[in-house]
Structures are given as structure tokens and as C-alpha cells.
Automatic annotation (TrEMBL):
<dbReference type="InterPro" id="IPR024079">
    <property type="entry name" value="MetalloPept_cat_dom_sf"/>
</dbReference>
<dbReference type="InterPro" id="IPR006311">
    <property type="entry name" value="TAT_signal"/>
</dbReference>
<protein>
    <recommendedName>
        <fullName>Matrixin family metalloprotease</fullName>
    </recommendedName>
</protein>
<keyword id="KW-0732">Signal</keyword>
<feature type="signal peptide">
    <location>
        <begin position="1"/>
        <end position="26"/>
    </location>
</feature>
Amino acid sequence: MAPARRPLLAAALFAAAVLLPGAARHGGAAAPPAVLAQARFAFLVPGPGGPLILEVAAVAPAGAPADAAALASAIRAANPGAVPIPPRFVSAAYVLDGVRWRDPVVPWYYAPAGATPSLPPGDALERIRRAAETWSGAGGTPVRFDYRGETADGPGCRGDPAAITYTADGLNVLGWDAIPGNYLGYTCWMRSAPLVEGTPYFELIEFDIVLDPRYPYTGDILQALALHEFGHALGLGHSDRCPGAAMCAGELALIFTEPQPDDLAALIALYGRRPPPPLPRRALVPAIARD
Ligand SMILES: [Zn+2]
């Protein structure tokens, strides 16, 4: 049997973050800070089967000591041979990241290690699961997150985003870890290098979501953050129509606990509806007008 050709993989690292200055106590209503800086960069990096693409999108709130150039150079230093390339640029109401799952039923696991002390463990998982569930079937799409239980293995790309390399462990995992640089959470994904035949999309292969446990979450804020990160895991980028969408960036990502119309439009654009929407009824009008 001929050996299977190893597909070229491209790794995309996505980071979205919020800093909470003057941390509110548990249960307190934390007013999220205003977003000040956003940065996006991409690198061509050598991989085992060919070149890979590492993408980073980061956002920092007002008053945070965010330094995009420092983050970019740290990522470059952590990935020997990385060559900066222009990031893809898109502008629309909703924004797609050009990736989607071939099978819209996406399994995922929860890694409870190091979970936030802000909420009882059961509550945190419940809120996270609810966030995943609200994407399931949203907008009439066939998308579904399939929760497979807890895992002792943390997410494959946890830790310092600047030090993450494109390793994949085959599991989609949401877990916890301290994230340096005042970032609250991020989603990493692996995608195919070639487009899915007949589509303008690359194939999503694996995702991991990392949340920083040090934030004083309320249940709603955790659910909103998880909803936003799961949206990235489906291929949704940051909306240009903000506020008003779960996929808005920065502090605006902590508002909605359910997908909004703009988010649903993005999901439908990526995955379509099942079943297809019915055609409008043909209007009954006379075929011939008579005097
Ligand atoms: Zn985001």
C-alpha cells in the first residue's frame, strides 16, 4: 500500500483578550475596559511536511501594557525560520476566517485542571457547555458541538501565546492556563494548507481554547467568553458590526451569551442550513390581465 501523503498543515493561532484592571471581587459586576489596541500578524514557518502558516490576532484593552511589536518578535523568536507575511485582510459585517469543518459535528473535551476559582467547578463547566450548546443548530445550520467529557490532557496550545508552536494532539480541548500579556483567552486551530475542493475554505483539523483562570468571572461573562472562543473554533472571525455580535473583539466579546443575528449570518454562510430554507410560495397572480 502506498503511504498516505501527508497533508500540508497550516497552524493558525488566534488570540483575543481582555484585561481587567483593578480586579473586581468575585460576583462583582466587572466593567470591562475599553479596547485600545488590536494587532494581527502572520508568519510562514517550516513544518514537518512543508511550510505552515502561523496567524495571530490579538487585542488589548485600554491601559494594558500591550506591545504588538514585542509579541510579534517573541512569536518569531519562538518559531525558528519564521518569515513575516501579510495577514489576510477581510472586511464585512461578519468576518470569516476562511476555515470550516468538513463534518459540522465537532467533538470537544474539557480539561478542568487549573480552573478559575471565581466559580464553583460545576458552574464553570455548565456555563462553558451552555456556550457550546448555543452554537449547536444555530441559524438552522447543521453545526453541533459534541461534548465528550473531561480530559486530564490540557489543551495542546496552552500557555504563553508567544511560545506556542504548531503542535497538535488530535483532541479539541478547552482548558485553563495563565496567559501572559494581559490576554484573557485565545483559540488556536490547525487547518489544511490546500482549500477544501469546491469551496473557498480551508479545512479545520483541530482546535484548542485556553482561558485565563485569574479573571473574576461571573457566570454570564464566562459563558460569553466561551461562546466567543467557540465561535472562533467554528471559523468565525471578529465582526465589523460592533457592538451587537458575539464575535465582536475585546471587551465586546463579553456581552452576549447567545449568538446574535450577525453571528448567525456568518454561521449560515459557512455551513448552510439544514434542511435548506423553503422557497417562497409563488404568488397567485392572474397570468393574463384583461380589460
Ligand atoms: Zn476573538
